[in-house]
Amino acid sequence: MNENSSGLPLHHLRRVSKPDTDSHAVSMVHFDRIVTKFGRDPRTAHALLTSRDAQSRLIISREHAYVTRKPHNNEHKLHDDNSLNGVFVNDIKINGSIILKTGDLVTFGHLNGRLITPGSRELQPDSEYQYMFELCNCHWKDKNQENQSEAQKLSKDVMSRLPHLLFGI
Question: Which runs of E-coded beta strand occur in the chain?
């Protein structure tokens, strides 16, 4: 079993939803750091949540959520970072934060998330942003470096196209 930087068992979120529609979207997120950020902004997110589908892409906030890991007991807490469309664990919209347990299904955003009351159950079988919280038995270092590299490449690509995206020039 892999260990995190505290010498405790490493956990990850593994994408279980339909296949990535965007090559920059993350499919595996390892929790070796104390804080791991999720969102659609490649400059701030450790785990980039994106899609080629414009409607799917817009349900994710720039800074959507983050997971904190307590080094002394390996507790992983998922926090909604004031996202517009919410964070769901086992199809229930969370209110602020929740401690993750192995086997939890985490879904980022919902098409009508801003209208859903925290604590409500909402199935999302077609979401692109569903992940399973698991103990890690994979080769995580290579994948972590690969994900960070992809986010950096995307950030450079987005920054180079920013004038065109903002002003159409």
Answer: 11-15, 28-30, 35-39, 47-48, 65-69, 76-80, 87-89, 92-93, 97-99, 105-108, 130-135
**Entry pTM:** 0.79
What is the enclosing helix (H) or strand (E) of 121? none
The whole-angstrom distance between residue 9's C-alpha and the CA centroid of its chain comes to: 20
With contact defined as beta carbons under 8 Å apart, do 31 and 69 qualify? yes
Alpha helices in the chain (DSSP H): 54-58, 140-167
> Cα torsion at 33, 63, 144, 150 (round to 10°)?
-150
State pLDDT tens for residues 31-54: 989 999 999 999 999 999 988 888
Measured from the Cβ of residue 81, the count of other Cβ atoms closer than 10 Å reads: 16
| Rounded CA separation 4/103 (Å) | 19
145: tokens are 């470096």
Name the one residue in this structure whose structure tokens are 């490449």. Answer: 153
Cα–Cα distance list, 62 to 19, 59, 81 (Å): 22, 10, 10
Q: What does pLDDT average to over the chain?
A: 84
Cβ atoms of 35 and 68 closer than 8 Å: yes
